[in-house]
Automatic annotation (TrEMBL):
Gene name for this UniProt entry: raiA
GO CC terms: cytosolic small ribosomal subunit
The protein's name in its UniProt record: Ribosome hibernation promoting factor
Domain Sigma 54 modulation/S30EA ribosomal protein C-terminal: 130-183
HAMAP family: HPF
Example GO molecular function: ribosomal small subunit binding
Any Gene Ontology biological process: negative regulation of translational elongation
InterPro entries in alphabetical order: HPF/YfiA_ribosome-assoc, HPF_long/plastid, RHF-like, RHF/RaiA, Ribosom_S30AE_C, Ribosom_S30AE_C_sf
Source organism of this protein record: Psychromarinibacter sediminicola
SUPFAM superfamilies assigned: Ribosome binding protein Y (YfiA homologue)
Subunit composition and interactions: Interacts with 100S ribosomes. Associates exclusively with 100S ribosomes, which are dimers of 70S ribosomes.
Length: 191
């Protein structure tokens, strides 16, 4: 597994890098068979250290966790515990569904845009209804089943996931509703 251990305005020493590689490889090896790479980033927020970890699995799924603590090692250990919990849930779900993906998840490219927030202090109408694009990025849309998409959304800790449905290759969306349930939008079934 490849590791990318970095610090944002923090010097990450050799001892911390060794600790991260040792602990994270134990956790990942316990629950994931073929991890590809891991990115661990340390930063400082006020008086606390923040650790963010992202592990990419060969199945195409991504697990990510973050934690903060007063000590940098404690922040990583908390982050590692969260990662272990996510991977344990992922493995349990795979066993429950008796389905193992033999091929990696296919991904297709798409453009992602960040739009400027509307200035609500103005009481006058904007001159144009076209939004102002702040940034443009390349993003990947995975080809998953609905169950895998929900699992990926929960592993990533995001409220919305756009994916290509393996059943019919249409673009679908799963999202977490305000009532705690999961919503699924499948435009191909609309009549």
């Amino acid at each position: 597994m490849r590791y990318q251990i970095t610090g944002k305005q923090i010097d990450v020493g050799a001892a911390l890098q060794t600790h991260v590689e040792t602990e994270l490889s134990e956790v990942v090896a316990k629950y994931a068979e073929r991890p590809t790479d891991a990115q661990v980033t340390f930063s400082k927020s006020g008086h606390e250290h923040v650790c963010e970890a992202i592990v990419h699995l060969s199945t195409g799924l991504t697990a990510q966790a973050s934690a903060h603590a007063n000590e940098i090692y404690a922040a990583f250990d908390d982050c590692c515990e969260k990662m272990e919990k996510q991977l344990r849930r992922y493995k349990r779900r795979l066993k429950d569904h008796h389905r193992e993906r033999s091929q990696p998840v296919e991904v297709s490219g798409a453009n992602s845009y960040i739009l400027a927030a509307s200035d609500e202090d103005h009481e006058q109408e904007p001159e144009t209804l076209q939004p102002i694009i702040v940034a443009e990025m390349e993003t990947k849309i995975p080809s998953l089943s609905v169950g895998e998409a929900v699992m990926q959304m929960e592993l990533a800790g995001v409220p919305v996931l756009v994916f290509r449905n393996e059943g019919h290759s249409g673009v679908n969306v799963v999202y977490r509703r305000d009532d705690g349930n999961i919503g699924w939008i499948d435009p191909s079934n609309a009549s």
